[in-house]
Design goal:
By secondary structure, this protein is mainly alpha-helical. The protein is about 65% helix and about 5% strand. It has 23 helices and 6 strands. The chain has a 3-stranded mixed β-sheet. Strand 1, helix 12 and strand 2 form a beta-alpha-beta unit. Helix 20 packs parallel to helix 22 and helix 22 runs antiparallel to helix 23. About 30% of the residues are buried. The N terminus is likely disordered.
Protein backbone atom coordinates (compact mmCIF):
# COMPACT_ATOMS: atom_id res chain seq x y z
CA UNK A 1 0.00 0.00 0.00
CA UNK A 2 1.54 3.32 -1.10
CA UNK A 3 1.32 6.76 0.42
CA UNK A 4 -1.51 7.72 -1.92
CA UNK A 5 -3.85 5.01 -0.58
CA UNK A 6 -3.26 5.36 3.15
CA UNK A 7 -4.59 7.94 5.59
CA UNK A 8 -1.85 10.54 6.28
CA UNK A 9 -2.18 10.13 10.05
CA UNK A 10 -1.62 6.39 9.75
CA UNK A 11 1.12 6.45 7.14
CA UNK A 12 4.61 5.62 8.39
CA UNK A 13 7.18 5.72 5.54
CA UNK A 14 9.88 4.24 7.78
CA UNK A 15 7.80 1.18 8.63
CA UNK A 16 6.69 0.87 5.00
CA UNK A 17 10.23 0.87 3.57
CA UNK A 18 11.54 -1.57 6.19
CA UNK A 19 8.56 -3.85 5.53
CA UNK A 20 9.09 -3.74 1.76
CA UNK A 21 12.78 -4.49 2.26
CA UNK A 22 12.05 -7.49 4.45
CA UNK A 23 9.50 -8.74 1.91
CA UNK A 24 11.99 -8.18 -0.93
CA UNK A 25 9.81 -5.90 -3.05
CA UNK A 26 12.34 -3.62 -4.76
CA UNK A 27 9.95 -2.31 -7.40
CA UNK A 28 7.51 -1.03 -4.81
CA UNK A 29 10.40 0.67 -3.00
CA UNK A 30 11.49 2.29 -6.26
CA UNK A 31 7.94 3.47 -6.98
CA UNK A 32 7.55 4.86 -3.47
CA UNK A 33 10.84 6.80 -3.58
CA UNK A 34 9.96 8.34 -6.94
CA UNK A 35 6.90 9.90 -5.29
CA UNK A 36 8.99 11.63 -2.58
CA UNK A 37 11.04 14.82 -2.81
CA UNK A 38 14.69 15.06 -1.71
CA UNK A 39 13.81 16.34 1.78
CA UNK A 40 11.50 13.42 2.47
CA UNK A 41 14.01 10.90 1.14
CA UNK A 42 16.80 12.42 3.24
CA UNK A 43 14.64 12.23 6.37
CA UNK A 44 13.85 8.63 5.55
CA UNK A 45 17.54 7.72 5.20
CA UNK A 46 18.36 9.43 8.51
CA UNK A 47 15.67 7.32 10.16
CA UNK A 48 16.95 3.95 8.92
CA UNK A 49 19.73 1.68 10.22
CA UNK A 50 22.90 1.52 8.05
CA UNK A 51 22.03 -1.75 6.30
CA UNK A 52 18.66 -0.41 5.13
CA UNK A 53 20.23 2.88 4.06
CA UNK A 54 22.65 1.21 1.67
CA UNK A 55 19.90 -0.96 0.24
CA UNK A 56 17.45 1.93 -0.23
CA UNK A 57 20.09 4.20 -1.78
CA UNK A 58 20.25 2.07 -4.92
CA UNK A 59 16.56 2.82 -5.62
CA UNK A 60 16.77 6.61 -5.28
CA UNK A 61 16.48 8.20 -8.75
CA UNK A 62 19.93 9.22 -9.97
CA UNK A 63 18.69 12.70 -10.85
CA UNK A 64 17.96 13.55 -7.21
CA UNK A 65 20.79 11.71 -5.41
CA UNK A 66 22.92 14.87 -5.17
CA UNK A 67 19.96 16.82 -3.74
CA UNK A 68 19.39 14.08 -1.16
CA UNK A 69 23.04 14.18 -0.10
CA UNK A 70 22.81 17.94 0.38
CA UNK A 71 19.84 17.50 2.71
CA UNK A 72 21.44 14.81 4.89
CA UNK A 73 23.11 15.62 8.21
CA UNK A 74 26.90 15.35 7.95
CA UNK A 75 27.16 12.31 10.21
CA UNK A 76 24.58 10.31 8.26
CA UNK A 77 25.98 11.42 4.91
CA UNK A 78 29.55 10.46 5.79
CA UNK A 79 28.57 7.04 7.13
CA UNK A 80 26.53 6.38 3.99
CA UNK A 81 29.24 7.51 1.56
CA UNK A 82 31.92 5.45 3.29
CA UNK A 83 29.75 2.36 2.92
CA UNK A 84 28.92 2.90 -0.77
CA UNK A 85 31.14 1.85 -3.70
CA UNK A 86 33.44 4.63 -4.86
CA UNK A 87 31.88 4.72 -8.33
CA UNK A 88 28.41 5.19 -6.82
CA UNK A 89 29.63 8.11 -4.69
CA UNK A 90 31.32 9.86 -7.61
CA UNK A 91 28.19 9.48 -9.73
CA UNK A 92 25.99 10.90 -6.97
CA UNK A 93 28.01 14.04 -6.23
CA UNK A 94 28.37 15.29 -9.80
CA UNK A 95 25.40 17.66 -9.50
CA UNK A 96 26.12 18.92 -5.98
CA UNK A 97 26.47 22.65 -5.41
CA UNK A 98 29.98 23.97 -4.83
CA UNK A 99 29.43 24.96 -1.20
CA UNK A 100 27.96 21.55 -0.32
CA UNK A 101 30.73 19.75 -2.17
CA UNK A 102 33.41 21.66 -0.23
CA UNK A 103 31.73 20.68 3.03
CA UNK A 104 31.56 17.06 1.91
CA UNK A 105 35.22 16.93 0.83
CA UNK A 106 36.39 18.16 4.23
CA UNK A 107 34.33 15.62 6.16
CA UNK A 108 34.98 12.36 4.28
CA UNK A 109 38.23 10.33 4.44
CA UNK A 110 41.15 11.67 2.36
CA UNK A 111 41.05 8.65 0.05
CA UNK A 112 37.44 9.31 -0.93
CA UNK A 113 37.99 13.08 -1.13
CA UNK A 114 40.90 12.52 -3.51
CA UNK A 115 38.83 10.23 -5.74
CA UNK A 116 36.01 12.79 -5.87
CA UNK A 117 38.37 15.64 -6.80
CA UNK A 118 40.00 13.52 -9.49
CA UNK A 119 36.59 12.87 -11.07
CA UNK A 120 35.82 16.59 -11.45
CA UNK A 121 36.74 18.75 -14.42
CA UNK A 122 39.72 21.05 -14.12
CA UNK A 123 37.46 24.09 -13.91
CA UNK A 124 35.38 22.53 -11.14
CA UNK A 125 38.51 21.57 -9.18
CA UNK A 126 39.82 25.14 -9.46
CA UNK A 127 36.53 26.57 -8.24
CA UNK A 128 36.45 24.12 -5.34
CA UNK A 129 40.02 24.92 -4.37
CA UNK A 130 39.34 28.66 -4.42
CA UNK A 131 36.33 28.22 -2.15
CA UNK A 132 38.29 25.99 0.24
CA UNK A 133 40.81 28.80 0.73
CA UNK A 134 38.18 30.83 2.56
CA UNK A 135 38.01 30.26 6.33
CA UNK A 136 35.42 27.83 7.67
CA UNK A 137 32.09 29.48 8.56
CA UNK A 138 32.96 32.48 6.37
CA UNK A 139 30.61 33.97 3.78
CA UNK A 140 32.96 32.74 1.04
CA UNK A 141 32.20 29.14 2.03
CA UNK A 142 28.44 29.59 1.87
CA UNK A 143 27.98 32.08 -0.98
CA UNK A 144 26.04 31.24 -4.09
CA UNK A 145 27.77 32.08 -7.37
CA UNK A 146 24.49 32.35 -9.29
CA UNK A 147 23.01 35.85 -9.32
CA UNK A 148 21.73 38.46 -11.72
CA UNK A 149 23.69 41.71 -11.88
CA UNK A 150 22.63 44.90 -13.65
CA UNK A 151 24.02 48.46 -13.97
CA UNK A 152 22.51 51.52 -12.34
CA UNK A 153 22.38 53.64 -15.51
CA UNK A 154 19.90 51.47 -17.44
CA UNK A 155 16.11 51.85 -17.39
CA UNK A 156 13.64 49.50 -15.73
CA UNK A 157 12.23 48.63 -19.16
CA UNK A 158 15.65 47.41 -20.29
CA UNK A 159 15.98 45.27 -17.14
CA UNK A 160 12.49 43.80 -17.63
CA UNK A 161 13.21 42.87 -21.25
CA UNK A 162 16.48 41.26 -20.20
CA UNK A 163 14.77 39.13 -17.54
CA UNK A 164 12.14 37.92 -20.01
CA UNK A 165 14.90 36.36 -22.12
CA UNK A 166 16.00 34.15 -19.19
CA UNK A 167 14.63 30.66 -18.64
CA UNK A 168 14.37 31.17 -14.86
CA UNK A 169 15.66 33.29 -12.00
CA UNK A 170 18.13 31.84 -9.49
CA UNK A 171 16.36 30.47 -6.39
CA UNK A 172 15.54 32.99 -3.64
CA UNK A 173 15.95 35.97 -5.94
CA UNK A 174 14.15 38.86 -4.24
CA UNK A 175 16.20 41.48 -6.05
CA UNK A 176 18.87 42.13 -8.63
CA UNK A 177 22.44 43.07 -7.69
CA UNK A 178 23.52 46.48 -9.01
CA UNK A 179 27.16 46.92 -10.01
CA UNK A 180 29.22 49.42 -11.99
CA UNK A 181 31.31 48.64 -15.05
CA UNK A 182 34.24 47.40 -12.93
CA UNK A 183 32.02 45.08 -10.87
CA UNK A 184 31.86 47.13 -7.68
CA UNK A 185 28.68 46.58 -5.69
CA UNK A 186 26.33 49.58 -5.79
CA UNK A 187 23.11 48.32 -4.22
CA UNK A 188 20.07 46.18 -4.87
CA UNK A 189 17.00 46.55 -7.08
CA UNK A 190 14.07 44.75 -5.49
CA UNK A 191 11.72 42.87 -7.77
CA UNK A 192 8.87 44.84 -6.23
CA UNK A 193 10.45 48.13 -7.33
CA UNK A 194 11.10 46.70 -10.77
CA UNK A 195 7.50 45.57 -11.25
CA UNK A 196 5.81 48.66 -9.83
CA UNK A 197 8.20 51.37 -11.01
CA UNK A 198 7.69 53.34 -14.23
CA UNK A 199 9.62 51.73 -17.08
CA UNK A 200 11.38 54.93 -18.06
CA UNK A 201 13.02 55.34 -14.66
CA UNK A 202 16.63 54.39 -14.24
CA UNK A 203 17.71 51.66 -11.85
CA UNK A 204 19.66 54.28 -9.89
CA UNK A 205 16.39 56.13 -9.12
CA UNK A 206 14.66 53.22 -7.35
CA UNK A 207 17.38 50.85 -6.14
CA UNK A 208 18.36 50.36 -2.48
CA UNK A 209 21.71 52.10 -2.19
CA UNK A 210 22.07 51.07 1.47
CA UNK A 211 21.24 47.39 0.87
CA UNK A 212 23.02 44.99 3.22
CA UNK A 213 26.26 43.36 2.12
CA UNK A 214 28.79 41.11 3.83
CA UNK A 215 32.50 40.65 3.31
CA UNK A 216 33.68 37.40 1.80
CA UNK A 217 35.72 36.71 4.97
CA UNK A 218 32.97 37.65 7.45
CA UNK A 219 32.00 34.76 9.71
CA UNK A 220 28.44 33.44 9.75
CA UNK A 221 27.85 34.57 13.34
CA UNK A 222 28.27 38.16 12.14
CA UNK A 223 25.66 38.09 9.37
CA UNK A 224 23.23 35.20 9.81
CA UNK A 225 20.88 37.30 11.97
CA UNK A 226 20.55 39.85 9.16
CA UNK A 227 18.11 37.57 7.36
CA UNK A 228 15.70 37.67 10.31
CA UNK A 229 16.23 41.36 11.05
CA UNK A 230 15.85 42.53 7.43
CA UNK A 231 13.38 39.83 6.29
CA UNK A 232 15.37 39.40 3.09
CA UNK A 233 16.03 36.36 0.94
CA UNK A 234 19.50 37.22 -0.29
CA UNK A 235 22.46 39.39 0.72
CA UNK A 236 25.37 40.42 -1.49
CA UNK A 237 28.91 39.17 -0.79
CA UNK A 238 31.80 41.46 -1.69
CA UNK A 239 35.57 41.09 -1.63
CA UNK A 240 38.02 43.34 0.21
CA UNK A 241 37.81 45.93 -2.60
CA UNK A 242 34.01 46.00 -2.64
CA UNK A 243 33.51 43.97 -5.81
CA UNK A 244 30.52 41.63 -5.99
CA UNK A 245 31.66 38.00 -5.79
CA UNK A 246 28.49 36.17 -4.74
CA UNK A 247 25.43 36.22 -2.56
CA UNK A 248 24.13 34.44 0.53
CA UNK A 249 20.63 33.00 0.14
CA UNK A 250 18.12 32.51 2.94
CA UNK A 251 18.23 28.70 2.68
CA UNK A 252 21.94 28.79 3.59
CA UNK A 253 21.16 31.04 6.56
CA UNK A 254 18.46 28.63 7.75
CA UNK A 255 20.94 25.75 7.53
CA UNK A 256 23.40 27.71 9.69
CA UNK A 257 20.71 28.56 12.24
CA UNK A 258 19.69 24.90 12.45
CA UNK A 259 23.32 23.84 12.86
CA UNK A 260 23.79 26.34 15.69
CA UNK A 261 20.65 25.03 17.42
CA UNK A 262 21.78 21.42 17.01
CA UNK A 263 25.22 22.41 18.29
CA UNK A 264 23.80 23.86 21.50
CA UNK A 265 21.40 21.01 22.23
CA UNK A 266 23.85 18.20 21.47
CA UNK A 267 26.86 19.79 23.15
CA UNK A 268 24.92 20.36 26.36
CA UNK A 269 24.67 16.56 26.49
CA UNK A 270 28.34 16.14 25.53
CA UNK A 271 27.51 14.89 22.02
CA UNK A 272 28.62 15.85 18.54
CA UNK A 273 25.97 17.79 16.62
CA UNK A 274 26.66 15.55 13.62
CA UNK A 275 26.00 12.41 15.66
CA UNK A 276 24.25 9.82 13.52
CA UNK A 277 21.31 8.26 15.37
CA UNK A 278 22.21 4.90 13.83
CA UNK A 279 26.00 5.27 13.88
CA UNK A 280 28.06 2.12 14.67
CA UNK A 281 28.07 1.16 18.34
CA UNK A 282 31.80 1.30 19.14
CA UNK A 283 32.50 4.81 17.70
CA UNK A 284 29.34 6.13 19.37
CA UNK A 285 30.37 4.62 22.70
CA UNK A 286 33.86 6.17 22.43
CA UNK A 287 32.43 9.63 21.73
CA UNK A 288 30.21 9.49 24.80
CA UNK A 289 32.75 7.84 27.10
CA UNK A 290 34.86 10.97 27.66
CA UNK A 291 32.09 13.10 29.10
CA UNK A 292 30.78 10.22 31.16
CA UNK A 293 34.27 10.01 32.68
CA UNK A 294 34.27 13.76 33.39
CA UNK A 295 30.86 13.44 35.01
CA UNK A 296 32.14 10.53 37.13
CA UNK A 297 34.97 12.68 38.47
CA UNK A 298 32.54 15.44 39.44
CA UNK A 299 30.26 12.86 41.06
CA UNK A 300 33.17 11.65 43.20
CA UNK A 301 33.81 15.27 44.19
CA UNK A 302 30.21 15.62 45.37
CA UNK A 303 30.44 12.27 47.15
CA UNK A 304 33.60 13.40 48.95
CA UNK A 305 31.65 16.34 50.35
CA UNK A 306 29.02 13.95 51.68
CA UNK A 307 31.79 11.83 53.17
CA UNK A 308 32.89 14.78 55.31
CA UNK A 309 29.57 14.54 57.14
CA UNK A 310 29.38 10.77 57.52
CA UNK A 311 29.05 11.04 61.30
CA UNK A 312 26.16 13.50 60.94
CA UNK A 313 24.34 11.21 58.52
CA UNK A 314 24.71 8.26 60.89
CA UNK A 315 22.97 10.19 63.68
CA UNK A 316 20.26 11.77 61.51
CA UNK A 317 19.08 9.32 58.86
CA UNK A 318 16.44 11.83 57.73
CA UNK A 319 19.23 13.94 56.22
CA UNK A 320 19.99 11.20 53.69
CA UNK A 321 16.33 11.15 52.69
CA UNK A 322 16.05 14.92 52.20
CA UNK A 323 19.55 15.64 50.88
CA UNK A 324 18.85 14.94 47.17
CA UNK A 325 16.02 17.51 47.17
CA UNK A 326 18.41 20.42 47.80
CA UNK A 327 20.83 19.38 45.04
CA UNK A 328 18.06 18.57 42.56
CA UNK A 329 16.23 21.89 42.97
CA UNK A 330 19.51 23.76 42.64
CA UNK A 331 20.42 21.82 39.52
CA UNK A 332 17.09 22.58 37.81
CA UNK A 333 17.25 26.29 38.68
CA UNK A 334 20.85 26.51 37.51
CA UNK A 335 20.12 24.77 34.21
CA UNK A 336 17.37 27.30 33.47
CA UNK A 337 19.78 30.20 33.92
CA UNK A 338 22.53 28.35 32.04
CA UNK A 339 20.27 27.70 29.05
CA UNK A 340 19.19 31.35 28.85
CA UNK A 341 22.81 32.52 29.15
CA UNK A 342 24.08 30.18 26.42
CA UNK A 343 21.24 31.24 24.14
CA UNK A 344 21.97 34.90 24.84
CA UNK A 345 25.65 34.42 24.03
CA UNK A 346 24.80 32.59 20.81
CA UNK A 347 22.48 35.41 19.71
CA UNK A 348 24.93 38.12 20.73
CA UNK A 349 22.52 39.53 23.34
CA UNK A 350 24.95 39.45 26.29
CA UNK A 351 27.83 41.89 26.63
CA UNK A 352 29.82 43.59 29.39
CA UNK A 353 27.29 46.45 29.33
CA UNK A 354 24.29 44.36 30.40
CA UNK A 355 25.87 41.52 32.40
CA UNK A 356 25.45 43.32 35.76
CA UNK A 357 21.74 43.92 35.15
CA UNK A 358 21.26 40.31 34.09
CA UNK A 359 23.08 39.05 37.19
CA UNK A 360 20.85 41.14 39.47
CA UNK A 361 17.77 39.82 37.71
CA UNK A 362 18.81 36.18 38.11
CA UNK A 363 19.73 36.65 41.80
CA UNK A 364 16.35 38.27 42.53
CA UNK A 365 14.54 35.45 40.72
CA UNK A 366 16.58 32.94 42.72
CA UNK A 367 15.60 34.71 45.93
CA UNK A 368 11.89 34.65 45.09
CA UNK A 369 11.87 31.02 43.99
CA UNK A 370 14.18 30.02 46.83
CA UNK A 371 11.88 31.47 49.50
CA UNK A 372 8.69 30.11 47.93
CA UNK A 373 9.96 26.56 47.53
CA UNK A 374 11.88 26.64 50.80
CA UNK A 375 8.56 27.26 52.58
CA UNK A 376 6.86 24.45 50.65
CA UNK A 377 9.66 21.92 51.18
CA UNK A 378 10.13 23.00 54.81
CA UNK A 379 6.46 22.40 55.58
CA UNK A 380 6.56 18.99 53.91
CA UNK A 381 9.66 18.01 55.89
CA UNK A 382 8.04 19.25 59.12
CA UNK A 383 4.90 17.16 58.51
CA UNK A 384 7.00 14.19 57.45
CA UNK A 385 9.57 14.05 60.26
CA UNK A 386 7.84 16.24 62.87
CA UNK A 387 11.06 18.20 63.40
CA UNK A 388 10.82 22.00 62.92
CA UNK A 389 14.60 22.49 63.21
CA UNK A 390 15.22 19.95 60.45
CA UNK A 391 12.62 21.70 58.30
CA UNK A 392 14.34 25.04 58.89
CA UNK A 393 17.75 23.66 57.95
CA UNK A 394 16.31 22.21 54.73
CA UNK A 395 14.63 25.51 53.86
CA UNK A 396 17.80 27.52 54.52
CA UNK A 397 19.93 25.15 52.42
CA UNK A 398 17.38 25.39 49.61
CA UNK A 399 17.64 29.18 49.52
CA UNK A 400 21.46 29.10 49.62
CA UNK A 401 21.67 26.64 46.76
CA UNK A 402 19.19 28.63 44.66
CA UNK A 403 21.48 31.67 44.91
CA UNK A 404 24.52 29.53 44.06
CA UNK A 405 22.68 28.03 41.07
CA UNK A 406 21.73 31.46 39.70
CA UNK A 407 25.25 32.85 40.06
CA UNK A 408 26.91 29.74 38.58
CA UNK A 409 24.32 29.43 35.79
CA UNK A 410 25.27 32.89 34.54
CA UNK A 411 28.96 33.02 35.48
CA UNK A 412 30.00 29.62 34.11
CA UNK A 413 29.05 30.25 30.43
CA UNK A 414 30.48 33.79 30.55
CA UNK A 415 33.82 32.61 31.92
CA UNK A 416 33.99 29.70 29.49
CA UNK A 417 33.14 31.97 26.55
CA UNK A 418 35.91 34.41 27.45
CA UNK A 419 38.33 31.51 27.87
CA UNK A 420 37.58 30.28 24.36
CA UNK A 421 35.74 27.16 25.59
CA UNK A 422 32.31 26.24 24.22
CA UNK A 423 29.89 26.76 27.16
CA UNK A 424 27.36 24.41 25.58
CA UNK A 425 29.88 21.57 25.72
CA UNK A 426 31.07 21.77 29.34
CA UNK A 427 28.81 24.26 31.10
CA UNK A 428 26.26 21.74 32.35
CA UNK A 429 28.96 19.50 33.88
CA UNK A 430 30.49 22.39 35.83
CA UNK A 431 27.10 23.70 36.89
CA UNK A 432 25.99 20.30 38.22
CA UNK A 433 29.19 20.07 40.25
CA UNK A 434 28.62 23.52 41.79
CA UNK A 435 24.97 22.90 42.73
CA UNK A 436 25.73 19.44 44.13
CA UNK A 437 28.69 20.58 46.22
CA UNK A 438 27.01 23.75 47.50
CA UNK A 439 23.74 21.91 48.14
CA UNK A 440 25.31 19.09 50.12
CA UNK A 441 27.71 21.38 51.94
CA UNK A 442 25.04 23.86 53.00
CA UNK A 443 22.48 21.25 54.05
CA UNK A 444 24.82 18.93 55.91
CA UNK A 445 26.91 21.77 57.30
CA UNK A 446 23.88 23.56 58.75
CA UNK A 447 22.57 20.26 60.10
CA UNK A 448 25.87 19.54 61.86
CA UNK A 449 25.94 23.03 63.33
CA UNK A 450 22.30 23.37 64.42
CA UNK A 451 20.96 19.86 64.99
CA UNK A 452 23.82 18.05 66.74
Amino acid sequence: MTSSTRHPAEFDPIALVIDLHERNEPQRIRDFLQEQDEVEVAHLLESLPPRERQYIWEFIPAACQADVLEELDDGVRNNLLEALPEASVIHAIREMEEAELVDLLESVPDRLAGAILKSLTEGARTAIQQRREYPEESAGRYMDTEWIAIRADVSLDVVARYLKRLDALPPHTDGLMVIDREGYYQGKLSLSSLLTGHGSKRVADVMQVDADKVGVLDLSEDWVDLFEERETESIAVVDADGKLVGRIAVDDALDIIRELADHQVMHMAGLDEDEDLFAPIIPSAKRRMFWLGINLLTAFLASSVIGLFAATLEKLVALAVLMPIVASMGGIAGSQTLTLAIRGLALGQISAANTRWLAIKEVVIAGINGVVWAVVVGLIAWLWFHDPKLAGVLAAAMIINQFAAAIAGLAVPLVLERSGIDPALSGSVILTTVTDVVGFMSFLGLATWLLL
